[in-house]
Design a protein that fits this description.
The protein is built from 4 helices and 9 strands. The chain is of the alpha+beta class and about 180 residues long. The chain has a single domain (about 10-180), classed as Aminopeptidase (3-Layer(aba) Sandwich), CATH 3.40.630. The strands form 2 sheets. It has a 7-stranded mixed beta sheet, sandwiched between helices. The chain has a two-stranded antiparallel sheet with strand order 2-8. The two termini are about 25 Å apart. The structure holds coenzyme A. Coenzyme A (COA) binds near residues 29, 39, 41, 107 and 108. It comes from Hapsidospora chrysogenum (strain ATCC 11550 / CBS 779.69 / DSM 880 / IAM 14645 / JCM 23072 / IMI 49137). This is N-acetyltransferase domain-containing protein. Pfam families: Acetyltransf_1 (PF00583). One of its GO terms (molecular function) is acyltransferase activity, transferring groups other than amino-acyl groups.
Length: about 180
Amino acid sequence: MPHATSLTFRVATPSDEDVNATLKLVRSAYRGETSRTGWTTEADLLADERIDAAGLRAKIEEPQGVVLLAHDDAGALASCCEILRRDDELAYFGMFAVDPLRQAGGIGRQVLAEAEDYARRVFGVKKMEMSVIWTRDELISWYIRRGYTKTDETRPFPYHGLVNGKALRDDLYFSILVKDLSLR
Ligand SMILES: CC(C)(COP(=O)(O)OP(=O)(O)OC[C@H]1O[C@@H](n2cnc3c(N)ncnc32)[C@H](O)[C@@H]1OP(=O)(O)O)[C@@H](O)C(=O)NCCC(=O)NCCS
């Protein structure tokens, strides 16, 4: 594995600069041809843009949540994620993306650890949950190696929330993974 990149973390603002850079990153990592450069992608499941500027701004401005950005030494956006406080006990982790050209180098691992630390420190929660499309075994295994447990809970896939595109399968749903944040 290449030497881990040194990252600077900060909370995203609703500025055009943050919104545009984050939108580009998320769209390139999840779906479409660029996402295939990474080791895990939704390109075979969904052909849409994942999120639009209004949806992203809503996450950035969400009073109960933050979008966390990780920049590299050169000031380029390398990764992002969303952390949402559900209640006193639980936070939700989502919109996790690493630049496809820089995946598998340890950035994702650092960002997930930072997000867990943020949830513990700032939101004071004890647990983190996330939703992963059930077919993504390689990604679920990655989260299990990071201390998550796959629960029996499932949630419907938001087929009506797709952005400028369509689903390529009609059997999608989310599996819910949870981690006890007191176990580091
Ligand atoms: C998931 C994601 C954020 C991980 O970021 P990353 O920077 O690649 O993560 P890391 O470099 O820390 O870890 C890479 C892991 O992939 C593993 N890996 C590399 N190539 C792989 C392959 N072909 N198949 C399976 N695992 C592979 C590595 O072994 C490593 O796991 P380990 O640390 O347990 O050994 C990134 O791949 C991404 O943006 N994916 C697209 C968007 C997405 O799916 N987000 C999550 C939605 S829930």
